[in-house]
Amino acid sequence: MKVPKLSVPDTLKHVTVRAEGDTDETFNRWTNRDVLPVPSYQRNYTTLAFAGWWVAGGTNATAWSTGSSNIANGLSAGEACGAILVGGFLSGLVAFLCGEPGVLYHLGFPMMSRSTFGMYGSYFVIMMKTFVNIIFCGIQCYWGGLAARIVLSCIFPSFAFMANTLPASAAINTPQLIGFVIYIIIFTALLFIHPSKLQPLLLVSFVGISCTFIGLFAYCIGANGGSPSLIASSKVIGSTERAFRFLQAISGVAGGWTGSAIRQSDWTRFAKTKRAPVVNQILGAPISITVASVFGVFATSAAKNMYGVTLWNPIELMQYILTNNYTPAARAGCFFGGLGFFLSQISVNLVQNSVAVGMDLSSMAPRYIDVTRGSLAMVIIGTVINPWRFVNSPGTFITVLSSFGMFIAPLAGINAADFWIVRRLKWRVPDLYIGNKSSIYWYTCGLNWRAFLAWVLVVWVSFPGFLWAVGGAPNVALAWQRIFQVTWFVGFLGGSLIYSTICFFNSPPGGKMSLERHAPFPYETDFIEGGEHVTLGQNFDATESGSVDMSAAKEKLARESVREN
Fold it and tell me: What's the pTM value of the predicted model, to 2 decimals?
């Protein structure tokens, strides 16, 4: 029997993500359904859904410990909370600036990166973000596993006092590993839900984590007999140094949340109305982060008065309460608290790591990767790296990851400047799916040298301080250290200014900063059919299957042309 030979392209056809109804125009080297404009029937995220998004992202273990860590750095409680409020507002502003393409064009972060850095240049931006998200996805899974352990410990006393059967070299004990596996199983199942249908989970998480924070805060204050003496720093610093550390705290908060804010268009493209995301971006971010930090400061202070130890992480605090006070009341309280944090870790990991990265990876290999496949790949990698080792044995690598804001903030600033200043909110959408010189986003061999030059110039300024922070250059001058410590201001503002200046003197194709006249782009969403640009008005509806009826599109275009003439 003769076995037929399959060429590599024929073999790969079996693993593509092409769906029924896809055409060569909606499924090719640069396009699949996950990177095309979101059809109207999938735009269902309301103001309340975005509130859930920001509360899930803002009221988490990181925000809880932010206030206490800034107090330890020399600030008073009031100064720390003020810095967090300002930093939260700045991160919300970045979310608004980077989220508007999703509102106007229903396109995500990869398309914003293509328009700014070029068709191939967008790969650099996406991989820069993906590298960090893989590690943080694993770490968030580990924290979610610890929350699952708390829930199980409250239900089963035998589990709460289970003996460890793993060697010390594993860097994790048996109950923690069981909780981690349970989290991974539940989390992986949720990855098969389309992003447009995640809002019920976000709302449940919104309610759950809000009740958890209030309950844990009330328990710590009540058990301590009232308002505790707030944690105070042992450091004595002058007014000038205090002012700088205030700026450093602002930069730290803004930089910490800019990593998710830069991807905001991945989610605003699902907005039901243009106003749905705005209030939560401008107000939801600073309020949720600040409230979580204030609760964290008071609860940590109360716990220190009660137990004599400083426990900044709320999940560790609940575990400590269970270990030292395994009563029915403590078990009931920690059960609901652990459940709230479990839901929070699910939501945070979905919207900020796995699903977001899945959306972005689908733009790099759209024939073979969709949102689900990209998300699954991230979880697999995030699991096999043994994320608990990064938490339990922190070293230079974690310091590097924590400092990655110096690389991301310039990307956000350059993207925002390109969309708002250079292009004045105008995109030629069909060109975002053309990988040759006929696209205005092809630039030079698929790379926009202006964006890369601006990024290098900004990162270079912070690099000596970065080497100092990771221990590679202990003798760096104080000025370089200072620049690195406020790297968000340097990166975001510097990237925006330098890129805008370069484009003023050498405007990119489609740029509006020069005196050159450009054809207007009056419609909201464009598609391509057989090399022709078919412009669709903002009221055009895709079919329920997601396919685009091009004959209807042409008829609509003809009607619009008659109306204009």
Answer: 0.85
